[in-house]
Amino acid sequence: MTYGGVDHGRRRFLTATTSVVGAVGAAYAAVPFVTSWQPSARAKAIGAPITVDYSKIEPGQLIVQKWRGKPVWILRRTEAALASLDAVAEQLRDAGSEEDQQPAYARNKHRSRRPELLILVGLCTHLGCAPSMVRPAEAGQFNLGSDWQGGFFCPCHGSKFDFAGRVYNSVPAPTNLQVPPHRFEGEHLLIIGEDEGGIA
User: Fold this and answer.
1) How far apart are the C-alpha atoms of 171 and 90, rounded to whole Å?
2) How many domains would you assign to the chain?
3) Contacts of residue 2, Cβ cutoff 8 Å, sequence gap at least 6
4) pTM summary value
C-alpha cells in the first residue's frame, strides 16, 4: 500500500530480501575464515592413530611403523625373549618400570598389554638415536659379551635395553624406551596412538 508516494510493502520486502542476501553473504565469507582455524589434513594425519594388522608378524620379527613422525617398533617376542626378562632384571636401572615411560596398563615386566607383543617408540632416550635389535647369537658383532640375553643396542653411545625396552645400568640412556598408548581391536588389529580413553 502506498502512502504519500512511499510503498511500505515493497520497502519491507526489499529490506527483508537485502537482509537475507547479506546474511548468506556473511556466512559464505565466514566459512573460509573459520575453516582456516581448523588443523590441516596433514596436521591431523601426523597426530592421528594408526592401525596395524599384526597377524602376519612371525615370532622374533620386528616391524616398524611411523606415528607422529617417530618410528614405532612392533615385536612379536619369542618364548626365549620372554624368558630373558627375568634373567636380566638385576642388571636394569628400572626393572619395575617405575619411571613414567609407559601407560599404566604397560607397567609390568613385559611393558605391554599382551606379553608376546612389544610396542615401543624406537628412539634411544639418551639423544634420540635409533637402536638396533640384537639377538644373543649376534652379541659378538657388537661386543656385548657372552652373557647378552638379547634386546636393543644403541650404536651412538652404547646404551642397552632388554627385550622389554628396559634400560641397563651404567649406560648413557637415563630411562626405559617409551611405550606409546595403544589398544587392541578384534583378533588382529593394533591401534597405536589411542587407548580405551580415546586419542592420546
Assistant:
1) 15
2) 2
3) 8
4) 0.75
